[in-house]
Specification:
heterodimer, A: mainly alpha, Cytochrome C Oxidase, Chain A, globular, disordered N terminus, B: alpha+beta, Immunoglobulin-like, Cytochrome Bc1 Complex, Chain D, domain 2, 3 domains, five-stranded mixed sheet, about 35% helix, about 20% strand, elongated, disordered C terminus
Chain lengths: ~550, ~350
Amino acid sequence: MSAAPSVAVEPREHYLNVNYGIRSWLLTTDHKRIGLLYLISITVMFFIGGLFATLIRLELMTPAGDLVTSDTYNKLFTMHGIVMIFFFLIPSIPAVIGNFVVPMMVGARDMAFPKINLLSWYMYVIGAVITLYSVIVGGVDTGWTFYTPFSTTYSNTYVFTAIVGILFAGFSSIFTGLNFIVTIHKLRAPGLTWRRMQLFLWSNYATAVIMILGTPVIAITLILVAVERVWHIGIFNPALGGDPVLFQHLFWFYSHPAVYIMVLPAMGVVSELVTTFSRKRVFGYEFVAAASIAIAVFGFLVWGHHMFVAGISIYSAMLFSIMSYLVAIPSAIKVFNWTATLYKGAISYRTPMLYAFGFIGLFTMGGLTGLFLAALGVDVHVTDTYFVVAHFHYIMVGGAVMGYLGAIHYWWPKMVGRMYPEGWAKLSAATIFIGFNVTFFPQFILGYLGMPRRYHAYAPEFQVLNVMSTAGASILAVGYLLPLIYLIWSLRYGEIAGPNPWGSTGLEWQTTSPPPTHNFEETPVVTEEAYAYDKHPEMEFVA
Amino acid sequence: MWSDFPLFPVRASNFADKVDPLYLFLVAITLFFSVGIFLTIAVFAIKYRRSVHPKAEQIEGSLAVEATWTIIPLGIAMVIFIWGATVYYSYGAPPRDALRIYGTAKQWMWKFQQADGQREINELHVPVGRDVAVTLISQDVIHSFFVPAFRVKMDVLPNRYRTVWFRPTRTGTYHLFCAEYCGTAHSGMIGSVIVMEPADYESWLASGGEGSLASSGEKLFRHFGCISCHRADKGARGPDLAGLYGREVHFQDGSAITADENYIRDRILGPRPPSKLVAGWQPIMPVFRGQVDEEEMLELIAYVKSLQQNPLNVNPNAPIPDEQQRKRNPQVEPQVIRP
């Protein structure tokens, strides 16, 4: 496998060395550079969000609220949620990996709207700065869910500032989605029909549809919160004539599909990884592609499953429950198809593939525990407990973050033209997998025992499981810090990767690494389906 | 820390006996699918590793296989759905003869009032083996009434009454948690539900009477001047409230509504749109929003409810059909005895 690394040479000129200086980066319209700008920004936000999580887990080592005050604790979990969801998970794969590889996968020179792409990053940065400003001046304590009338009337924290920050992040998300849709529709290379597209494109297309249709709803909802908070116009607060449950409908109308914004791109990544490292066409291409679209559509019809005890009618709850089971089916289909793709493959255990295995395992657990929450009778007991916390971390961290790290390790050679140290990378993948399970599995048990979420102090019989969870979190933290170190190290000391170290048939690998500013020396022509490994025995591992 | 280390919650109500079997069924489904998928992946990953299986065989896919793994999970999902919906339905309507308890939630405490007048803070005493219905409202933000040992949870809203019910099956003291985040001391908004033998419960009730809810409500009815208009005699300027609860009320625009707790609360607080004035009466009633707190409101409602049988001989424990029950049995009309 590592037969001939010395053969690989770096191209003389590429998008990283074509020009230098701050201006060339801050005013760039190159989708690859914008992807890297996003990479740096969301990495900063990830570790800030991780710091909040660390403090939360340290506080929960003991049943008494003794490390920080209740107000501080409430701000910590609020900021952890806001930073991780709006400023890390939602932009993670689309804005970093998607920005980098979507134009190359369609064989284009850039996104359809390169300037809007750059504007998207500025929107993100402005939003992040405003949100961090709200943390520095005093923080927000509403939970990332901003439930009314607490957020509009009773909270004495910087709700308005945080909302403004999230609005900017929302626009950055809309701009990214817009670019994906137009780019995939209009800029595909000659011969690249819809049925020949790589599955990463399908899943990002589905994601972009949710971004465009869902994000305006959360923007309007948060503006309504601000209107009631600042001008006391009654919308949600019953004392002013409003309805507090209305907020939950509007909020979850976006925020449930937002889960699919986080996990659909990761599913696309896993399809790329499983095929590349099995050297096989994906089993049931049409079903995997259609499942992405089905998830995007059905995802908009299940928001009420967050509200089974919130005061909605029994019959609407039943509809939301049955719809939730329907949206689970396409996810299950994907898992089965990935598993079947391994059958009679030629499987290699490189780091990205380990992340793909990790994703499938953790996402399966997250998905199956979702069945508990969609089951009306069981949800009454487990909603708003640690069971929910465990479930959505399995989906969002076990699923989305594993997918993101898999993507980073897979496309890193393309992004920077260098390989990372494989041994360290495998170690970190294993550390993250183990740390993750030790952190979050005990929380399922805690949840069924009845420990409510967002509790600063808790009953003493919950301590053992909480200590386990905190111990796991410290393992997880090590796992997340390792890639930061060896990936930076690889920029200078990593082996030269060459154009296609994994021997992938993906269009983005058919150019040099790092690619030239306009991606391809000449516009590629696509003559075959994606993942046609049988027709390309010459594409082999060189790294 | 290690002395008390449960892995499964205590089972202390009728709902625990319904929720736990479904939960265990789901655990079994989860184990079956996750172990199945993990083993399959492990077998394929080892058997077809590149060092022993260097050449992949291309497989397009198979409609039959896709249909199989779509339809079977769908069938299992529908079984879970129906089972879950059945359990959920039983949470809905409290039995008609349930013991009635009223409560208010506010940042950050629970207050409960037994119909006989016993009041308690962050404690709720109930008898074992009897259906108990707790009607709750919040004075500020959304809270949630959660008793893990009973597998019961219900959000408590600031704008309307909601009723949760359960039948305790084991005596003991159980956690009461607020499960909806409500601000600074959310994790301090906890209490206990104390399930007692019926005889112990009766003697506990007898130990601290402060006058029934309805009798406190009667005092408020005079205090707020309600009595000067809402009378039975000819000089009345407002409708006589005897028999109001559970009765259909007709408005000037021809529409009608059945008077329940939420209706009475909304009418007292106001505002009342002109089209929704009670037919035959002038719009002279003041708005009480901001003047009556939620505990006083519960007492006033208890008094108005008591009026349907006999305003002189109050029986506040009378079974009251709630909203959902009336929907199910529309023919049930409370008995009205005029003075």
